[in-house]
Amino acid sequence: MADLLVTQIKSTIGCKPKQRGTMRALGLRGIGQSNTLPDRPEILGMIARVPHLVTVKPVTTEEGEA
User: Fold this and answer.
1) Would you state the pLDDT for residue 32?
2) What pLDDT is attached to residue 50?
3) Domains (range + CATH), the chain
4) What is the Cα 17 distance to its own chain's centre?
5) What is the pLDDT of residue 66?
6) If I label 30, which of 12, 16, 20, 61 is the partner at 20 to 30 A Cα–Cα?
7) How far apart are CA 25 and CA 21, in angstroms?
8) Which H or E run includes 37?
9) What's the pLDDT at 64?
10) HSE of 53 in the Cβ direction (CA atoms, 13 Å)?
11) Coil, helix or strand for 4?
12) Alpha helix (H) ranges present in 6-62?
């Protein structure tokens, strides 16, 4: 199963309220904070709304780990 490591690189000061809400929904509250999220269409849609505020890196996890 593939996951995405989403990291906030810019501040949400001056952004529209919907963009701030999207960042909170992604679990990001400050610059430099990261969150690992599943690679699903809903998450990719949220990332597409705030590409200027985040960086995304793919993370592969082995299903044998628990």
Assistant:
1) 97
2) 98
3) 2-60 (3.30.1390.20)
4) 17
5) 52
6) 61
7) 6
8) strand 34-38
9) 53
10) 25
11) strand
12) 17-25, 41-49
Tokens of 16: 């529209």
Which amino acid does the sequence have at 10?
Answer: K
Q: Considering only CA atoms, which of 9, 45, 55, 2 is closest in space to residue 25?
A: 45
| Cβ atoms < 10 Å from Cβ of 7 | 15
Give the SS3 label for residue 62: coil
Indicate the SS3 state at residue 59.
Answer: strand
pLDDT value of residue 47: 98
What is the token pair recorded at 50?
A: 């705030």
DSSP tag of 19: H
Give the residue from 45, 44, 53, 55 showing the smallest Cα distance to 6. 55
Which pair of tokens denotes residue 45?
């849609």
Residue 8 identity:
Q
Residue type, 30: G
Q: Which residues are paired to 58 by β-bridges? A: 4
